[in-house]
Amino acid sequence: MGVVLMSAQSAATQAASTPAASSAAGAGPLLDVFDRMGMTVALGDGVTVEDSTGRRYIDFYGGHAVASLGYGHQRLLDALTGQAQRLFFQSNAVDLEVRTRAAAALVRIAPKGLTKVFFVNSGAEANENALRIAFLVTRRPKVVAVSGAFHGRTAAAAAITDHHETWYAFPRMPFDVSWVPFDDVAALRAAVDRDTAAVIFEPVQGVAGARALSRNFVQAARAAATQAGALLILDEVQIGVGRSGHGFAADHYGVLPDVLTTAKGIAGGFPCGALLVGDALAAQLKKGQLGTTFGGGPLACALVEATLQAIEEDRVLERVRRVSKRILETCRVGPVEAIQGLGLLLGLKCTRPAKEVLAELRARGILAGSSHDPKVVRLLPPLVVEEEHVAQLAAALASLPRQAALENSR
Ligand SMILES: Cc1ncc(COP(=O)(O)O)c(C=O)c1O
Hints:
Structural class: alpha/beta
CATH topology of the largest domain: Aspartate Aminotransferase, domain 2
Shape: globular
Number of helices: 17
Number of domains: 2
CATH architecture of the largest domain: 3-Layer(aba) Sandwich
Strand order of the largest sheet: 4-12-11-10-7-5-6
Bound molecules: pyridoxal-5'-phosphate
Helix content: 25-40%
CATH class of the largest domain: Alpha Beta
Number of strands: 16
């Protein structure tokens, strides 16, 4: 059952979960729907977390790509406490200077041509609204999605998340979906037609194991969507806001989407999501067509602004590219036979089950994530991770056997 109900977070954490931890969690007040790692995290500092027994770990998991500036970043603490003292909450019915500043900061790191921002609370909500925009402006019935996709758990986002047929709990699908095999340009061109409202994909699939689509595919999707009059939506919930080594991966691919969605690390760990569009699409939307109560609240916006300032002033994008290169150069050791992905969303393809490798890394003081690919260990660390941490990861990997003990003894 664990496999068919697997969600993004549970996929990442299930590798190291223990029956003892699961049953303890099941006995407590929380609904027991996540596979847990079997550890209690008590503290975070920089790129290190500490469990309740005082044991420290270098965090290459990053709270599932959310802790973009690590833990206890002074700029985030100051932004949060300062904003909380000034104004804790107000809705979108009133203007907030901090909301305008956060939107402007997001536009500054976004691909040129994306000029307007709508803030929400999560990745699924960003995708849900992106799809709503596509149906509003095209009045067409179909979405084209890519095999292996993960777009969220709400009704529309889940309909374009792969494996939905095994766990989709809503009584019927909300719209038609055409699935295109991963990176298959011919299938993509055949699928995008005059019924297509939107083509949506993650340029680098996170949950599928940090799989990057080719430039060829992404550019073909742009061309096919334009030709058919459909919108191109890039889901950068996981790879966006610096993780690719660019503001957004769209710039790595040289493509301007009609809608770009993002969330996770955008506010350094505070719940927030956003979608961006260009002027022409913005002009087609009318008042009342999108809405949210908490989205764009002052605390989230203060943290978006602080996170983006830190990314710019601390030259985080350069660091992401440098550290990513170091991982590619040094971590193809021990059980790692190949490395895929982009920036600091990387998949270590292993000769052995990721589950085993994750448990052995953890015993050596390193946390990482799993994925839907049972042979891929996923790295999604804070963007402020340093080369010295990579050296420790590489040393830990090098100390692991290439094959399982049983196979070695044969
Ligand atoms: C690419 C992608 N899109 C959407 C989502 C859903 O985001 P959320 O869990 O914030 O709703 C995720 C979550 O893992 C994701 O990785």
